[in-house]
Amino acid sequence: MSLVAVALELALIVATMLVTGALAMIGPRRLVASLREFRWRLEVCALPVAMLAVVLVIRWSTVDITMRLERRVIGNNITPLLFGMERALLPENPVIVLQSFQSPELTSFFVFVYIYGYAFLLLFPFLAYFVLDSMDDFSTLILAFTANYAIGLLFYILFIAYGPRNFDPMLFEGLLYDAFPQSRMLTNRVNQNTNVFPSLHTSLSMTVFFLAWLTRAKYPLWVPISGVLAVSVAASTMYLGIHWFSDVVAGTALAAISVYIGRNYTANGLLEMGRRYLGPHVGGLTGYVADRLSAINRFVRDRRS
Amino acid sequence: MDEGASRVSRRTILAGAGSLGASTLAGCSEQFWSRAEDTGPEQVELTIKTLPADDDAVAAKLMSQLRENYIAAGIDATHEPLGRADLYRDIFLEGDYDVFVIRHPGLKEFDALRGLLHSSFTTERGWQNPFRFSDVTIDDLLESQQSSNADRDESLAELFEFLEETAPYTTIAYPHQVGGVRPDLDVSISPRHPLEYVDVLATERADGPRDGPIAIGVYGEGLTNRFNPIVVDQNSIPGLLGLVYDPLARRVPSEDDVVPWLAESVSWDETDDTRATVTLHEGTRWHDGAELDADDVVFTMEFLEDTSLGAIDGSVPAPRYRARLALLEGVTRIDERTVELSFGSTRRSAAARVLTIPLLPEHIWEPRSEVVAEHRTEAVLADNEEPIGAGLFRFESVTADSLELAPFDDHVLRDPVAQPEILDGESAFTGIHFRIDPNVGAMIDALLDGEIDLTASNIPPSELDTFREASGATIVSTQSRAFYMIGYNYHHSSLVNPHFRRILSRLIDREHVVSELFDGLAEPAMSRNSLVGITDDAWDDNRASSVTTFPGTDGEIATQEVRSLFEDAGYQYENDALIE
């Protein structure tokens, strides 16, 4: 099974889940209506979307540099600390507790949740918040995701941390890659095995759940669904031996911080702050980016009229 | 170590501050001084480094047993997993470890022990004495086994006995070389070394030669990041650089001596001092078409000795091949195809190790002698993305998950007339395609799906069940010289004590490890010689060693027994902690 096959399978399954979810929770009429007026919707949130894109592009394009910084310059390996801390504070390591319930069915469930459930959980809010009358929730979502990735990247540069399965295969089992080794082809593209603290799987899932709670009036059904999924994703990272309990705790904290940022700041406000605090040079650059973006907006609007 | 130091000072300060207050009370000044002057005994702390399970599942499991046994013995043991390139960097370049567990590729000649242990290499980087070990008696024995004026067997026997007592490192077991092969391929080995690849490629296929490359599966992180043949801090495909870079002569497992390779002939003169006159094949070329001549041979030897080529005071030796080069006393160009190497009083079998150093093209590496940072030349920092060697295969293309090697048609040994026996038989394939998977599971699935013909990375025994159940592949397993070793840092305040190292060396249950972690596919190190990395079939007198008596059962130590061992060696326990 090649990377393409693995990716295609992921795309197919997640697309099916998204369509089902959208039909059940959003409804076809709202979907179609929002598609018809997608232009203003995009314009309104162009800046946060651009910010998310920039952070993702930086993450993706600087893998070599960040790995070198992380491993050769900073070289701060906290794996023994995580293991030692959990051994000292907890009567039994939560990963061992979860893995003691191991069964083929449970493994299949958690593998499904870890890969497909997670992808669905992350993508569905994009649809759900895009069709709302106001784009505020959509912008909040994007900003919160951006914060997750940006802060996560910072932690990954500062700390080398291997997951339980890599640390000690006698105590912890690497269930994911035993059950579905090819999934490493996907996860390998996204991340390295030294980046487990905090768990971005947990933080992004929890972010979605926290936002679901805040928008419960609009999507009441999404609260229990995202809640069950988010908790399952967090549990799956430990059950599958990928993350420590500490990573999950830190991931949840990161989610709370990210949601706070998403709710209380706007992309424009953050850029303005950057301009003020980071001095004229960097500020000038971000200002330039903002100017360009609004120029593009104007251009699109002119063409439409 | 830093942590320990800072704790001491913190404690000193606290004790000082606390006692200062106390000393204002009459009669307490004695206590104040004793507290301030003495920091008191500390628990023995050891940081053990090894690969994460992704890179070497067996090493990670060995580590687990070792850590638990150390902790049970009262040692404050922490275990730190590190990626291969980073681990090698810490062990071989920085000396930043207390204890390490790694798989050594194997000692091909007794003289290799000299590189591991001789005190003249303590400041060198690479596999040269990574322990910073120094002992005059051992130095003497290492020198006499190398010299043609002494009885080698006697020196070696004495050396093994001495090493048993001093335990600068210890061997756990010799794992078999295990791999998977498609049933339509009549191959009995999973290749790691260049000649093993050559063997595999010459295998006859049932349906005739294939018009395409053989597909070989490997797995690991960063396998295509660096292809520098002279450095140690990189991860690479097993045997790859040996396929691309060729030496003057190669060591053939079936023979004691080396066989001429890029050299057409090697003639030895041992009448006075040991000398070798080496003549290159006519028309030997590098992969880029440039001619390979005697100048390249002389250059390689001088360059590895000092990659700055004399540009700075002192030298910047290559981290690899240094111990072998130390045997060389001089190299002289006789004519375009001939060089003379002199080895002083070194015996021929040890001196031949110099001939197995891969040759580097002068026109590519000479410019890399530039000093780019403090005591770093371009040569030891370069990634060497497109290696140009003179080997049987040349680099064709490389991506993050595949690497293609094409046969180098101009290689002198591919000429049917010159072909040595070892290259007999038409190659059944046109080149080698390496498929790089992210982990062992994906590599095994690729084999079972028929996407690769065989595997060349180590397969942990726990994965073998997948094969036994499936029909798409067979397991091949051969004994090898590679061994899992525990290395100790001589600069650590506890590890400098040979009695301490000897007890530590006993804290792993070798027989249990072989049956449980290796699934029986390994030989435990139980004799004096095997404890230092010399396999039992390479040495006649396999005397059993007391170091292999495990103080416990089924991998777990008997705490009281181990405590009395440490106490007999002069250590003490305080609240179950081993203190020094």
TrEMBL record, chain A:
InterPro entries: Aur1/Ipt1, IPC_Synthase-Related, PAP2/HPO, PAP2/HPO_sf. It is a multi-pass membrane protein. It holds the Pfam family PAP2_3. Keywords: Membrane, Transmembrane, Transmembrane helix. It is found in: Membrane. Residues 150-263 form the Phosphatidic acid phosphatase type 2/haloperoxidase domain. The chain crosses the membrane at residues 40-61, 110-132, 141-162, 196-214, 221-242, 248-266. Coiled coil: none annotated. The keyword Transmembrane helix applies. One of its GO terms (cellular component) is membrane. This is Inositol phosphorylceramide synthase. It comes from Salinadaptatus halalkaliphilus.
TrEMBL record, chain B:
One of its GO terms (molecular function) is peptide transmembrane transporter activity. SUPFAM superfamilies: Periplasmic binding protein-like II. Residues 258-576 form the Solute-binding protein family domain. It comes from the Archaea. PROSITE patterns: PROKAR_LIPOPROTEIN, TAT. Keywords: Signal, Transport. One of its GO terms (biological process) is peptide transport. The keyword Cell cycle does not apply. The keyword tRNA processing does not apply. Belongs to the bacterial solute-binding protein 5 family. This is ABC transporter substrate-binding protein.
